[in-house]
Amino acid sequence: MKTKWSLNELARYADEALILSDEIDVEEELKKRNPQVLSITPVFCEGALTVDGQEYILYLELSYTVVLPSSRSLEPTEIPMHVSISEIYLPPDAEADPDLDEQDVLVIELEYDWIDLKEIVTDNILASLPSKVLTEEEKKSAEMPHGKGWQVVSEDEAKTKARNGEPEGDPRFAALKSLFQDETDSHEE
């Protein structure tokens, strides 16, 4: 499938939409822009690009599986994803219709006289990457990583310990905490 069109080429789709239905390989681009991406299947894209005057309207559904490291153990974790894209592109120096701001669609002014679907897909995948990634085993287990003299605790567990007055962190640093408290008190006066 062709992934890059000049705006002049797209002008011929003013009467009927350019139907998009194929796979795009964006793995190399994703890995360059985000080293956390270990791999990604070819992205299945299905949708349409229409032209309405100076507006180039893209509706696209993306389906793919991305492999990211687990947030807890760094184990490679497969994550099936489905992303919807609704964007309007304007040629360079075009005036945006004020009514576009009221729609639930992203309006982007192009820097150049072309639309690059591969770049659009890559940008949207990067924006959709989850911040918390857990393997199936980690989702089922409450066990957190630990080692000699350290352990990871959940945010809820840390809050509970703080409410119960349990010491936070290494007790050898307790004296330093009082230094900061004195400084905070003097700023409040």
In short:
The protein is an alpha+beta fold and 189 residues long. It has helices at 7-10, 27-33, 117-128, 136-140, 155-163, 174-188; strands at 4-6, 18-24, 39-40, 43-52, 55-69, 76-90, 106-109, 114-116, 146-147, 150-151. The mean pLDDT is 85.
Helix content: 25-40%
Percentage beta strand: 25-35%
SSE succession: EHEHEEEEEEHHEEHH
| Extended strand count | 10
Distance between the termini: 68 Å
How many domains, as an integer?
2
Largest sheet: 6 strands, mixed
Q: SS-based structural class?
A: alpha+beta
Instruction: Using the alpha-carbon principal axes, give the shape.
Output: elongated
Uncertain ranges? none
Quick check: average pLDDT? 85
Radius of gyration: 25 Å
Number of helices: 6
Report what the structure shows.
Helix content is 28%, strand content 33%. With 189 residues, it is α+β, with helices and mostly antiparallel strands. The relative contact order is 0.14. The protein is elongated and about 70 Å long. The protein has helices at residues 7-10, 27-33, 117-128, 136-140, 155-163, 174-188; strands at 4-6, 18-24, 39-40, 43-52, 55-69, 76-90, 106-109, 114-116, 146-147, 150-151. The protein starts with a strand and ends with a helix. It folds into two domains: 4-138, no CATH class; 153-188, no CATH class.
